[in-house]
Amino acid sequence: MATLSRNLRLNLDAKPSWRKTKIVCTIGPPTKSVEQLVRLINAGMNVCRLNFSHGTHEFHGEIIANLRKAASITGKLCSIMLDTKGPEIRTGKLLEKNVDLTVGMEIKVCTDTKLLGTKEMISLDYQGLLDSVKPGGFILIADGLISLSIVSVHKDQGYVLCRANNNAKLGETKNVHLPGAIVDLPAVSEQDTRDIRFGVAQGVDFIAASFIRKAEDVRTIKDILAEDGKHIEVISKIENEEGLDNFNDILEISDGIMVARGDLGVELSMEKIFVAQKMIVSKCNAANKPVITATQMLESMIKNPRPTRAECTDVANAVLDGTDCVMLSGETAGGDYPIEAVEIMGKICCEAEAVEASTDYHTLFAALKLSAPVPITIAETVASYSVATAIDLKASLIITVTETGTTSRLVCKYRPPVPVICFTDKAFTYSHLTLTRGTIPVLVPSLIGTDNLVEKALEMAMNLGLCAVGSRVVIVSGVMEGVPGKTNTLKVLTIGESIKGLKI
């Protein structure tokens, strides 16, 4: 009924304001040049994603160097996310180019990768296959396009007998999913370890960790990051049922979450994907952890200049669910319309946020307060009531002073309808806040002197058209300036009255 109440107040003529939701773009050969990266940043890219399932260290190193040049040219912040290949299972080589599968035919699946596959038997590179699967289960190949039902498991003879569920041509080295099975693979492969260490050396901001199944997987990655990579945040990708089953533990240790709907959509029943997405996003909102919704958001724009109506609705619903970020994959990595995809995604986000502006914020505020851990910290109490104050006073802006980013994220957790300018003196915090909805991060030499920071924020906000003389502004900081964890102060001022000498 809360949604009905909101929707009855909607107006198609409402003008969207600035965009709060962040956009993550995957970069590939067509978009890796400085010129294209400048265009993507200006179009609205907030985070550059490097997909380490493809490309060499030299290739990705070139993108990182080009991105930093592009960010310097635009004067805009764009952080870097390294997405690991992760543990995966693939089919083996074949005697011929393809194996023709027909509905109902039986085929044996073994783990002898030296075997050249035929229509009688193919191989997988997962040695634990016979211990992981059971009769009645499935082996899904090539993103689920090929489905095999497991008839019986023959451990003594080293194979699984399967029956084909659809007609298909099976090629070599295709990805494999075992839905419902407990897969005994290392969380991080040797290649992943080399890639993560490369990322540390390159100074990336985030590691998007593929196929996270349990909390221990995240600890393994943090151990690899070690002291040199302690400021790199780990974004856990939820891509399988085991990850969903252990989600609460994974969320607790992760710095953020990605709803990776591609692989998750293969392992999970199609009709359950939206349920998983809503559950993950809501739990991240309650835990104050950034969440990215990914995969096939504007997939048709790889080849078409306009998205489908369903894709537009998908992006908008992700924003209304509470996602911090939406992600483009093939659309910007190899599509024909990468700039247009970012621009259109940005417009959809703005329209969805305009819908969200019709929400009864007092009801939303109460729901978020109920989800907060008890006892609530001083910092969260101050942050939550800064949003309530901004709503009650119809303030134009919230300003936070933060060292670790916690204060800014706590404010944004309560979904303020106004921009949140986040001052920090830490470069890593400056970059990390690009994943949090509603933030405008600003890097300063020092956090000492709140009044000077506020004056700078107001000048910047007025130049951006976010406020004007007479606008009210809410400020969240700490009495002990420059000391992390001491957020305890909420102030309200009116531009032109509360700060003397403000340059307008």
Question: How does this structure look, described?
Answer:
- It is elongated and about 85 Å long.
- The chain starts with a helix and ends in a 10-residue tail after the last strand.
- It has an eight-stranded parallel barrel, surrounded by eight helices. The chain has a seven-stranded mixed sheet with strand order 4-12-8-9-10-6-7, with helices on one face. It has a five-stranded mixed sheet with strand order 20-19-18-21-22, sandwiched between helices.
- Strand 1 (22-26), helix 2 and strand 2 form a beta-alpha-beta unit.
- Helix 6 runs parallel beside helix 8.
- It is α/β, with parallel strands linked by helices.
- The relative contact order is 0.10.
- Helix content is 37%, strand content 21%.
Strand neighbour order, sheet with most strands: 1-2-3-13-14-15-16-17
Strand % is: 15-25%
**Coarse shape:** elongated
- Report the uncertain regions: 500-504
The strand count comes to 22
Radius of gyration: 25 Å
Oligomeric state of this protein: single chain
Quote the average pLDDT: 91
First-residue to last-residue Cα separation: 44 Å
SS-derived structural category = alpha/beta
DSSP helix fraction? 25-40%
Tally of helical segments: 18
Largest sheet: 8 strands, parallel, barrel
Fill in the keyword field for this structure:
504 residues; disordered C terminus; seven-stranded mixed β-sheet; elongated; alpha/beta; 37% helix; single chain
Task: Describe the protein's topology.
Blueprint lengths: L1 H6 L14 E5 L7 H10 L3 E5 L5 H18 L4 E5 L5 E2 L8 E3 L4 E5 L10 E3 L5 H4 L5 E4 L4 E9 L4 E6 L3 E3 L4 E3 L12 H13 L3 E4 L5 H11 L7 E6 L2 H5 L1 H7 L2 E5 H7 L5 H15 L3 E4 L14 H13 L3 E4 L1 H4 L4 H19 L4 H11 L6 H15 L4 E5 L4 H8 L6 E5 L2 H6 L6 E5 L6 H14 L8 E7 L8 E8 L10
Parallel strand pairs: 1-2, 1-17, 2-3, 3-13, 6-7, 13-14, 14-15, 15-16, 16-17, 18-19, 18-21, 19-20
Antiparallel strand pairs: 4-12, 5-11, 6-10, 8-9, 8-12, 9-10, 21-22
Helix pairs in contact: 2-3, 2-13, 6-8, 8-10, 11-13, 15-16
